[in-house]
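Side project, low priority. Logging it here so it doesn't get lost.
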Amino acid sequence: MNRITRRKLLKGATAAILGAPFIVRASALGAEGRPAPSNRLGVAHIGVGGRGGGLMGGMLGNDEVQVLAVADTDTGRREGAKKRIEQHYSQKAPGTYAGCTDYKDFRELLERRDIDAIVIASPDHWHGLMTIAAAKAGKDVYCEKPMAGTIAEGRAASDALTRYGRVFQTGSQERSTGNCRYACELVRNGRLGKIHTIRTFLPTGDGRSGCIGPVPVPDGFDYDFWLGPRPWQPYHPGRCHGNFRWVLDYSDGELTDRGAHVNDIALLGAGPLLVGPVEIVARGKFMQDPLFDVPYEYHIEYTYANGLKIITDSANAPGTVVCGITGAHRGVLFEGSEGWLFVAIHGGALAASDPAIPKTVIGPGDIQLGRSLGHGQDWLNAIKSRGPTMAPAEEGHRTASFCHLAVIALQLGRKITWDLVKERFVDDPEADRMIARPMRTPWHL
């Protein structure tokens, strides 16, 4: 037998390398302004339905990232997202794209070392657990609002992100709207005098599921995994996908849907005024339906230790005129000793008691909240700088907790008092039991 020495092997390999042409594809060099693959962030999406599909489109349009994988319990949605991603990249880099991998179980996706960051657009009841799992896996996270399905899950998720040093952005996109940030700067810099009341307006509606009894689970949908930590219930299409937010097992309705946008801006403006404990009283109605059971009419008052009141009201319907703005059924009204200021959510229109107020210049010596290049881009920039985002974990947790507290007050039908520091109710064991929810095995915090 011929023996090949190490020296001969290396000599032959070197000759082969020197004799062969060395070709580097243009895409590998970042041609046409695109970053080279080694400089792009590997991103994966968990939940690729309506909102998830929109977020995925934003990532596909950004040359700073490469979407590598998707996870969803619905085979149709999952395969559709995979096809969309592969068509997109194949057109941009024909013959060089390796493909997208799809997973039913998001935990398998988190094991991949080439994935740097995760976008979560699952139903609300999964947000906390998925964020914690991603943080433990060393991934940065963008998670749709609300940050978590319960106060306890939000606390655990925020702590995990800090412990593992991950960059996090809550999907409260209004925080990246210039006029919303400007309105909060006016409030924080005393342009309205001493703030005494903040009113937030939300839409409402008595939803109907059309539920007439359980039906078979469709092929390709892992309903049991979709339920995850929440109690088992018979399958009905009205329970899942976009309708999940009308079922208390998975969401708190408008209070954590649009409420997580509107109330978030109220809290951003109030900022230093949020001192506790805070007393909460609420009245309202819950949907009366075989399936849907979230609050749909409500009036909630939060009274802080310094006397500040935040009032959340669902009384305004679409088309309502508030402070001269039509359709202001989603907005925030700041009331101070020297005037008022209204900012509409999803548009950012401003109105004030004095037309000069929204023309005030925020100077170098004033409190400045900064501006965003876009909510998604802000997250990507923070990943690269390892700096804070516009809607970091603690802020997302505070806003989600604010919304969950409203539902707890509505369910109990009496005044509750919340300790902002301890994150516990004051002398109220019954209310304390509602901070967390039991989870089905094997899920746990």
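Brief comment: Confidence is low (pLDDT under 50) at residues 1-33.
Revisit when time allows.
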